[in-house]
Amino acid sequence: MSYLANSWYCAGWSSELDSGTIGRTFLARPIVIYRDSHHETVALDGRCPHRFAPLAKGVVKGDTLMCPYHGLVFDRSGACVHNPHGDGHIPPNAKVRSYPVVEKNGAIWIWLGDPDEADIQQISETSWLTDKAYASVTGYLKVHANYQLVSDNLLDLTHAPFLHANTVGGDPEDSIGQQMEIDFHMDDGNVIHSDYLVRNMRRPTPQMRPLWGDRPGDFRAEMTWRPASVQELDIRMSPPGAPKTEGVHVPSLDYLVPENDLVTHYFFAVGRNVAIEDDEQTEMMGRFARMAFEQEDEPMIRDCQDLMGTTDLFSLQPAILKTDIASIQARRILNKLIKQSSRNAKAGAAMESA
Prior knowledge:
By secondary structure, the chain is α+β, with helices and mostly antiparallel strands. It has 2 domains: 115 residues, Rieske [2Fe-2S] iron-sulphur domain (Rieske Iron-sulfur Protein), CATH 2.102.10.10; 203 residues, Naphthalene 1,2-dioxygenase Alpha Subunit, Chain A, domain 1, CATH 3.90.380. The chain contains 6 helices and 18 strands. The strands form 4 sheets. Strands 12-18-17-16-15-14-13 form a 7-stranded antiparallel beta sheet, with helices on one face. A 4-stranded antiparallel beta sheet has the order 2-3-4-9, with no helix packed on it. A 4-stranded antiparallel beta sheet has the order 5-6-7-8, with no helix packed on it. Helix 1 runs antiparallel to helix 6.
């Protein structure tokens, strides 16, 4: 499978770097990330070019990273700057690739494509994650399925009343069919919005009851998708007929990164704008989020992947529902961007060889 390399991907939460290096595989490439002596983030290929040892198990020494196997030392550009053996000669191929990497809004972002195309402004603003007006919790899961299946799951929330009846889903009688209003639209060319509204829902979802109470209200779930695989979900409960800002706001983030065709890194965050000093509520909020995906979504997505036997959804000629519009459009946009990026890369290579 091809991936969209020219995109910002979440590589982890900033707090993960407080205890040392991060070693993960993104887009089938092993990567190591660390902070140098100036507290600046560095991202390099994760395999030592000597015997292909995992650099993530190495030691950060000032601005450099020392391989744990034979002690070669690499600087932030990926060049080997010290060979402790023999006369210290450094072979010309003793280097690894470095990648643009930044920390923003509590997350680490890496660009795996053409570095000249890396524009930090493309990283969406999620200020609530570091806003003191919100309580928040972050987490990470590894999903054994293709990342586009995970994205499909998040973009079509009509599964929630069936798969998440006791966690984040509402009663099917209140929240699907004619009771649910769906607004699908796009902006900036490639950004998808899939918004759900249930007016005067009799009972909030189990996740919202501790925050809103067991009373009616207008329920909103507004999802935004940005390529390659960033989802931002705003869940709100407000008095019937009132503006959505006059109630409980539970925003969440879902950052998906393919490790390979069949494994996905899933970084998530969830917050709330009420009872922000209640640590017990924060713990329960994180537990609900993890339970919903780890015990309900992930097993189902994995079962679907196993039964599909392929990562090419359309090759199986799936039945398409009206509520699939957001996930289908996201797949089309991603496929378009991957093909466009591939054409540009080939054109650039042709110009260099001319």
